[in-house]
Design a protein that fits this description.
By secondary structure, the chain is of the alpha+beta class. It has 13 helices and 16 strands. It has a 6-stranded antiparallel beta sheet with strand order 1-5-6-4-3-2. The termini are far apart.
Amino acid sequence: MPVASSWEPAPDPPSTGSGGRWADGHGSAWSDEPPDERNDGQHDERPDDRPDEAEALAVLTHAAAGDLLAAALATSGTGIASWRVDAVHHRPGDGVTVGYVVQTADGRHEYLLATTSRTCPRDVPGTLVARGPAGVVVVWRHPQDPVLPALGRACDPHRLADALPGAGPVTALELVGYRPLRRAVVRAERDGVPWFVKVLRPGDGNAADVVGRHRLLADAGVPVPRVAHASDDGLMVLEAIDGVPLLDALVAGCTPALADVLAPVLAFPPTVLDLPTRRPWSSRARAYAGALEVRPALEGRAHAVAAGVRSGLRRTDAGPTVPTHGDLHEAQLLVDDAGRVCGLLDVDTVGPGHLVDDLGCLLAHLHAVRPMTPALAATALRWTGEAAAFVDPDALRVRVAGVLLSLAAGALPADPEAPVDDSERLITIAEACLA
C-alpha cells in the first residue's frame, strides 16, 4: 500500500469502544458536545490524560495533511488533485476530527475525514489507520463513519425507503447535522411528509438508550417527537413536530415566562432519576479552556474563566438532584402560535442532574445568539431574574460562565488564521458572569 513519506501504516491495535454525545452548536465548525462520562463526581478532570490536541489540529489543518489524504485515496487507486479543510470537530480530552473536501485526479469530489480520537475503532474495514506527525490517525470516506454504520443508509434515498412510513419515493434528503463518530441527523420527505432520521452509535448501547429515553418521556406526556422506526444498526426515524423554534418566537417579540419554558422539563417523570448521571458542561471547564489554547491570545483568559468556574462549582449550592434535559437551549424548544412550548427535542442527554445546569445552558446559549437584539437582551435579563425562584443566583452565574466557555471553544473557526471575534465575545460575557 503506497503511503506518503510523512505517514506510515500504524499497527492494528485492539478496537476500543466509542463514547460521546452530539449536540448542535450555533453552526460553527467546532463541535459543541456535552460530555458523556457517566460519573457522579462533578469535577473529576484528568488533564494529564489529554492528547496534545493543539498539535494534532495544527498538523491535520496543515499542508502535510495532503499526504495523508493522498494515502487514503491511493488504497482505491485514486489520485488527489486538490483539497481544503471544511470543518474541525474538537472533543476536548478525546481528540480532533477534521473534514476535507477533496477533488480527485479524475475530477470527482469526495468528502474525507481524519481523526485522532482515542475512542475511534482502528479495525473497521474501509478505513486507513496511519501514524505520522499527529500520532495515530484514522481516515475514512463519508458516509463510511467507523462507528455509525447506518449513516450510509440514511444518506441513500433508496436504502432509507424501508425505514420511512409512506409509499412514494424518498425526496428532499438533507444532512442537517453530523458530528463524526457521534451521531448525525438527516431530514427526509416522503409523500410530502417530513421526517427526521437520527443515526446513532449501536456498538455501545447509545442507540437503544436514546430510543428508550424518547419512549419514556412520551409515555409521561412530555411533547417529544414520536419514534416511528428504530433498527439495530442505530437508525431512528422521528416524526416532525409542528411548531416554531423558540428563538424565532423570541426575535418576533414573544417572550414566555421562564416557568412556561421549563414546563416540559419540570414534567419529566421520576423514573428519569434511574438513568445514568452525566456530567454537566461546566464540569469540563478546564478541558474547554485547553481547547482554546490553539489561539494564544485567548489562552490566558480562557484558563482564568475555567479557574473561576471550578472555584464557583465548589463554592455554590447546585440544589437537589432532579430530572434534567442535560442540553437545554432555545434550539431544543418549539412553541405554538400562542408561545406555549409544544415540542422538546434532542432528549439524548436526559437524566438525573441539577436544574441550575439546565438553566445555565439555556441562558448561556441565549447570550451567544448573534446578532443580540434588544428583545433578546431583555429576555435574558428577565429570565435571569425569574430563575431566582428556582435556583441559587450565584450558582447560576457560575454555570452560565462554564457553558459560555464551551461555546467559545465551539466558535473557533476552522481556519487557524481567521479572526476569533465570536470566541472572544463569549469569553468576555463569561468573565462578566464571574465578576
